[in-house]
Q: What sequence folds into this?
């Protein structure tokens, strides 16, 4: 490297080009990761819709967890599969200041795959039902008042 390269700005230009290249590669990796995650999630929903088994789940706990930019409610539930009690937690966005205690001790369906018991979805919202191709029951329309 000569002083001539530094004087002409060649070194600064190369650094800028390298940063641009790294930024572009990093952005590409993030997009790829999001696409793979989305494909994996959609595959899980398709498998669940193909061979669902249903169990009744009971809400055991509802906790607000605050985070930067807003919080979410973590809903814990329990259900029985093949004689074993399973406990899970999901995250939902609720309407602010809603009486979330309404959900405590309520029962909802949980769908899981025959071929993969770890592939499960509690069915609370219209979106939960539509993800696995089921119609939303009229008996759960009250839920919409609480969820975003």
A:
């Amino acid at each position: 490297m000569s002083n001539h390269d530094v004087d002409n700005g060649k070194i600064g230009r190369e650094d800028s080009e390298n940063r641009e290249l790294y930024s572009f590669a990093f952005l590409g990796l993030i997009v790829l990761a999001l696409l793979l995650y989305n494909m994996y999630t959609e595959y899980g929903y398709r498998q669940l819709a193909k061979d669902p088994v249903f169990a009744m789940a009971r809400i055991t706990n509802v906790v607000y967890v605050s985070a930067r930019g807003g919080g979410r409610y973590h809903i814990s539930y329990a259900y029985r599969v093949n004689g074993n009690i399973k406990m899970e937690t999901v995250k939902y966005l609720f309407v602010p200041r809603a009486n979330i205690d309404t959900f405590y001790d309520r029962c909802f369906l949980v769908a899981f795959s025959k071929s993969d018991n770890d592939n499960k979805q509690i069915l609370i919202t219209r979106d939960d039902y539509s993800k696995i191709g089921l119609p939303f029951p009229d008996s759960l329309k009250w839920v919409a008042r609480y969820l975003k």
Remarks:
- The chain has two domains: 3-45, 52-145.
